[in-house]
Protein: DYW domain-containing protein
Organism: Urochloa decumbens
Amino acid sequence: MQGSSDAKAKAWRFLDNSSPIQPTGTTITSVLSLLTDLKLDRLGKEVHCYALKNGLTSNIFVSSKLVDLYGKIGDVTSAANVFQKIGNKNVVTWNSLLAAYKHNKKAEVALKLFSEMLESNLHPNLVTVQIALLSCGMTMALGYGRELHSYITKSWPGGFPATLACALMDMYGKCGNIEDARLVFECTVPKDITVWNTMMSCYLLHRMPMGVIDLFDCLEQSNIQPDPITFILLLSACKQEGLLEEARGYFNNMEDVYGIKPTLKHYTCMVDIMGSAGLLAESLTLIQEMPVEPDACLWSTVLKACKLHSNLEVGEKAAKALFKVEPNNTSNYMVFSNIYADTGLWDSTEAVRDAMTEQGLHVEKQCSWLYHGTAVHPFEAGDLSHPAIDVILSTWKDLTTRMEQSGYSPRDIEPYCNVEADPFSCHHTEKFAVCYGLISMNDNEPIRISKNFRMCMECHSSIKFISRDKNRQILVSDGCTYHRFKDGTCSCGDAW
């Protein structure tokens, strides 16, 4: 329908000037949907300009899709600006903005907006509630999640859909309440394979691999056929439990017994299991024999196994392949530089990080969230603007004094660097969140924290000490696994 006046597409003209076809709101919505899926943000912005010039942004479907576009390209400011200019906001519009903030790891904002939506007398639909539940899981907002559970029960008195059951189980699992997740599972009738898989993933998150395997045994006795995701969860459970031979058995049975052809993700699970067992050479052999091409996720799995076992030879091969298929992922560079650091090759460590800088890559800022009362408190690295920061730092100072007096031995600080660092410093954001939890919450109330980075060994070790010293249960979800600290121990068994 549209063509450019030159090869650089600087101006638009109609292909058929004699009888031009004027795009409608439906046309623009369809185009924006396509550009969003293809992540063509520059063209999306051009279509936004076209819609503005032609008065099409008043169409609520166009505006909602623009909010969705900006949210998925990481520009939540533009998403919010478009949203604010919509005069007749509906549930779909609100869902687009909620999803934008959740997608960009600003779940606490999504929950706040959900409350504003309720105040505007709009009734949430299934998608709205799912987004809110996912946001609760991301921020460990258990109290908010329970309120949503009550809302769901009242809104669907005859029983709610399996999709909501899965969202509830996921929320309870990520908020540290595996018992309630299991209760939702037991009460869901009928159970489809997605419900079974969601419960397995909750067990996996809590590092309860035998729960996954036992649940699979129950699944086999039912009339429900496992799907490819079931075997990804099952193989991941074998990895957590160190069951190499059992994993091989499940992997072989996939196609022989269940007719499920292994995908790249299943091969990645097997490579992960072999890598964890130190069989790095064998994992490379499996990669060479695969009927599919390895992707970034697989090579990243090999690289992390090399970090675990300080294997520089295989690590360099994995990094070379990884940087070809995924050159802009900062975490890959960080893992590779840490392998060099493990072996004391500091010049190589700095060279990898210099390469990151030259390519304009920057490490995402660490952030932790503490859910307390009706608010989610974010703590971002380098940001000391929290109203209680002075009390937080004072609390940490008191804790470090008790650590030193007890003979506590700090672990290595990560990420690695060839400089001296104070092991007792309030180095990472989860320590700020723990301290604020100690000073703001009741003594018998668990401290629930989520963060966007894997916990380092020093933070993990110090929080174990705090849980025993303060007799507090501290729950941390770090995106890698779920940690339940109590009496000086962690549910992950110090392996994550």
About this structure: The mean pLDDT is 87. The longest strand covers residues 367-372.
